[in-house]
Amino acid sequence: MKSFLRALIMVMCLLTVNVSTSNAAAYRVGDQGAEIAEIQGKLVILGYDVMADGAFGPAMADAIKEFQKSQGMKADGLIGPATYSALLGKEMPAITVGSNYISHRIISNAMDYLGVPYVFGGTSPYGFDCSGYVQYVFANAGISLPRTADVQYEVGSPISTTELVAGDLVFFSTYTWGASHVGIYLGDNNFIHASSSRGIAVDSLGSSYWSSHYIGARRIL
Hints:
This protein is an alpha+beta fold. The protein has helices at 34-45, 58-70, 81-88, 99-111, 130-139, 149-152, 208-213; strands at residues 20-21, 96-97, 123-124, 127-128, 157-159, 169-172, 181-187, 190-195, 199-204, 214-219. The chain has 2 domains: 23-96, Orthogonal Bundle (Muramoyl-pentapeptide Carboxypeptidase, domain 1), CATH 1.10.101.10; 99-219, endopeptidase domain like (from Nostoc punctiforme) (endopeptidase fold (from Nostoc punctiforme)). It is built from 7 helices and 10 strands. The protein has a 6-stranded antiparallel sheet with strand order 5-10-6-7-8-9. A hairpin with a 3-residue loop joins strand 8 (190-195) and strand 9.
């Protein structure tokens, strides 16, 4: 997980992001769209356990690593020209980015802190609580969020589970009524959050605990 690239570019203004060609030469966790869905469809045909939902999440990265190993390639979980050609049998198109450029930067940044310990009230890489972590990750992308989960739950637009894409916020009612826990959706039904027992970690929305405490999601981007 920690092999994902650290976000290097800060987002300057959400309202001025235009579709353009990316300098990145690979698809990776956080990317979304028809191209990702096409790749997922091929992985499904080859027997890999992924969902063709158009969102590049951790499960897809694991499948790509397995495919790369089977081809004698470097298993980095990124879909560059060589991996794309080996998988789909055609030349990789130019990568374009729009609103998902921002979500990619958020996901890439979020993944950098895997394993950082949980600290109640924590708002830095020395230790995070759930909302402090989300606030910190979004701030590094130039997006200001409130400090606590219950107030973060009032920001952005409410969305259904079927509408979730990487970068959306997912909320849970845990130790108290209402939104008391928050995480960042990654795709593949997974989210990353500050777990009180494991620190920054990835979990599934479909697990018995999180599915029973889930209360909704908000789209900030």
